[in-house]
Amino acid sequence: MWNHTRSVLAGLLASLLTGCVNAQSMAETTGGNKVDDREIASMMEKHCISCHAAEPSNEIYAAPAGGLSLETLASVREFAWEIRLQTVDSDLMPLGNTTDMTQAEREQLGSWLNQQEDQ
Ligand code: HEC
């Protein structure tokens, strides 16, 4: 009985949580607001550059992880396809998601990448 109640509660909690995430990402994608370059620059700073820089602050790496530096938006644009694959369409990056990148941020990055293609 208790086990059953517990799993029902867990299910309820899970659906509450995903409900929140969906509501959040809806807010990001609706409204047609353009994503500002600065938001992406600070997103890279927060989630990527510790590993993807000429001199990564992450001590594990002596050179940019995967040979990829994301310190400029030009390089983010250049590797748009790979970044979309790893970060928007999947959560392979940030590696292990140690920086807790959110679904809303991934969608924001996706919108920005779309904007670059539209230009
Ligand atoms: C903890 C370190 C770390 C963080 C943080 C990180 N990466 Fe990576 N990334 C790596 C490593 C290591 C590789 C190389 C993996 C490989 O070649 O299998 C890599 C590879 C990649 C690649 C290249 C894959 C390919 O096609 O060769 C892309 C694109 C990428 N990362 C994007 C990102 C983006 C965007 C972020 C931030 C949202 C990010 N990474 C954050 C460690 C990291």
Q: What attributes characterize this protein structure?
A:
59% helix, mainly alpha, 119 residues, 5 helices, 2 domains, binds heme C
Could you say which small molecules are bound to this protein? heme C
Which stretches are poorly predicted, pLDDT < 50 over at least 5 residues? 22-28
Largest sheet: none
Query: What oligomeric assembly is this protein in?
Result: single chain
Q: Ends: how far apart? A: 59 Å
Helix content: 55-70%
State mean pLDDT (0 to 100 scale).
85
How would you describe this protein?
- This protein is an all-alpha fold and 119 residues long.
- It folds into 2 domains: 1-33; 34-118, no CATH class.
- The termini are far apart.
- It has helices at residues 2-29, 37-47, 73-78, 80-88, 103-118.
- The site of heme C has 19 residues, from helix 4.
